[in-house]
Write a structure and sequence with these properties.
single chain, globular, two-stranded antiparallel ribbon
Length: 316
């Protein structure tokens, strides 16, 4: 069976089991597991695929620690995110890259509001507001960059580049566009946040790197300074913020800000004339993403073990 057929089969299984999980809740869990396994076999096995498979399974299993009002459907949402993440590693089509970006971002709008006994609407409104802005900026920037590849216009290229990077920065929490990160990380339930802080960070960076390499021009070297400055600000802000925070979740929030700054530096490699440097940057970025994902899942699940919200750290 070829890739599209197996991916479609995994998506059908995920959809049907999510629908029937309203009556048989465990069906959503098993359907998500089966869909992730099928999708993993559909793509060529590699280190990134194995790690995404593992992160996806852990994210699905961790949802069992919370009694969600939409339990069953939440498994399907995480499964959809895993399928989109696996698929973006195989596609060379701009439309599918952008589709994968949206399919990973939108389920987090629901996940962030999940908590035991109801919905955390306040944190959801804040998160969704920033994510919608990020998605709009990213998509418009990507379309402008794609347009300039065939009909080059310097001003349009710069506009598209800035919009794309700003959209990415808001999406993943790069300083100084990280205002939502500390409050959402602290207020939301730790289990959904472990998914948003791990699995949801992979696709935006892969999509941005793919688009910037695909649309690179003679102006790229100059405008890349914008990305480098954002990365430096994020590293500094994240580390200082983590050192001065007293809550577990807020420390993890600023840790994410710093980590996203490190990964953002990988986008600078698009100006390199040597293809091997791009491969090195992609490898380094994926390793950092995977390390961030593994750490956040472990820490947020540990916080959940202490209660719905993290107690303050007493500094001596």
């Amino acid at each position: 069976m070829d890739l599209p057929v197996m991916m479609l089969g995994a998506l059908v299984i995920l959809t049907l089991t999510s629908v029937f999980s309203f009556k048989y809740r465990e069906l959503g869990f098993y359907g998500a597991i089966v869909a992730i396994i099928i999708a993993s076999f559909a793509v060529s096995f590699s280190a990134p695929v194995v790690f995404i498979f593992a992160i996806g399974l852990i994210n699905v299993i961790s949802l069992k620690a919370i009694k969600s009002v939409i339990r069953g459907v939440d498994y399907g949402l995480v499964g959809l995110m895993v399928l989109a993440t696996l698929y973006i590693l195989t596609t060379q089509d701009l439309a599918m890259v952008l589709a994968a970006f949206v399919l990973v971002s939108v389920p987090t709008y629901i996940l962030v509001m999940i908590r035991e006994g109801g919905a955390n609407v306040e944190v959801g409104i804040k998160y969704i507001t920033f994510m919608v802005l990020a998605t709009v900026l990213f998509l418009i920037g990507a379309v402008i960059l794609a347009y300039t590849k065939d009909t080059f216009d310097g001003a349009l290229y710069i506009l598209g580049y800035v919009m794309l990077v700003m959209g990415l920065s808001i999406e993943v929490g790069v300083a100084p566009l990280h205002e939502w990160v500390p409050d959402v990380f602290t207020s939301a339930d730790p289990i959904p946040m472990s998914i948003i802080a791990s699995l949801a960070k992979i696709v935006p960076f892969i999509a941005a790197l793919w688009i910037l390499i695909y649309t690179a021009s003679e102006l790229t070297a100059s405008i890349t300074v914008f990305t480098a400055v954002l990365a430096a600000i994020s590293m500094f802000t994240g580390n200082i913020g983590a050192l001065t925070s007293k809550e577990h979740a807020r420390v993890l929030a600023y840790s994410t800000v710093a980590n996203m700054g490190y990964i953002l530096t990988c986008l600078v490699v698009v100006i390199s004339p040597k293809p091997e440097f791009i491969a090195f940057a992609l490898t380094g970025g994926l390793l950092m993403l995977f390390a961030n994902a593994a750490g956040k899942i472990g820490f947020f699940n540990a916080i959940k073990g202490e209660g719905a919200y993290s107690p303050p750290i007493i500094l001596s």
